[in-house]
Amino acid sequence: MSFSVVIAAHDRADALKRNLQKLLEQQYEPGYEVIVVDESSTDETSEVLTEMKAAYPNFYSTYIPASSHYVSRRKLALTLGIKAAHNERIIITDADCSPVSNHWLETIANHCPEENDVLCCFTYYDESTPEYYSYLRLKSWCMQTARPYRCAGACVIIRKSLFMQKEGFIRNLTFRRGEFDFLVNESETAARMVDNDCYLLQECPTKKEWLYEQLHYLCIQPHLHHKWCGKLMLLADQTLLHAVTLGTIAYAAFASIQGEVLYATIALLVLLLFIILRFAIDYLRTKKLGVSIAWWKLPFFDYRYLWTMLCLRFRYVLADKADFIRK
């Protein structure tokens, strides 16, 4: 099974210098190619790509003109890269992502079932990233069923024939981002890679980049299909957490006022056991996926999650929607 790795990059010269070599030096006998499409960068991206083309025969690059308007440049760039690919299996990722070993492609090939046209791979954040960002990505990954409706990360594997048959991003070109989510969402056979060695490592985003990504998702979320199962799971999870916590504390306070110290103590112990159970589930998830989060922070992140989502929703309501949609 041969692969084509496609990356769209805009002003990512430094990231390409750090990560592109790791993709180009994979130990994979069937062969592969890496294609980078320059989104009219104004930094040294073109020079970096020229150097890479001279050093690696399996590397190709092209660009889109700065005059491209009214459509997402990222999606246009990816479309050009996929059309230029010589292989059926396309791996789409970002310039700030890199494999954790030079056997990454080999592992993907061993876990790439023929029956799935689209596969999404989890993407770790590197160690310099705030642990809360890693927790939120972990939460997004876990709050989905075996049939994912979006991609929790920046790596999707898709068949070129399916992409061409569905006319690529034609139905969502006006959205500036959301390329990974739409690819997964529009496939009836989408699945998730479940082997840690298939995942990628992503560099720490700036606070602005992270916020931009979250607000973009809120923009495209109403246009995603099959999202209700995941949303219901998340709603049930957060409702249970806050209802049990507030209800138990209220009962313990009422029992204390009534002089029923024993009942108040039992209520608080029940709450403590409930928190420990949730903590144990989150801790097992971090270990299973290999996400590095200090164990003692997990309960605090669990309670913080709902308020983060509400704050992001408020920020999105106030934001200029032209930042997310091309007119």
Descriptive account of the structure:
- This protein has 327 residues and is an alpha/beta fold.
- The protein has eleven helices and ten strands.
- A seven-stranded mixed β-sheet has the order 3-2-1-4-8-6-9, sandwiched between helices.
- Helix 9 runs antiparallel to helix 10.
- The longest helix has 30 residues.
- The relative contact order is 0.13.
What's the gist of this structure?
Helix content is 49%, strand content 13%.
* Low-confidence region ranges: none
Mean pLDDT: 92
Derived from helix and strand composition plus strand pairing, the structural class reads alpha/beta
Q: Say how many strands there are.
A: 10
What structural keywords apply?
3-stranded mixed β-sheet, 7-stranded mixed β-sheet, alpha/beta
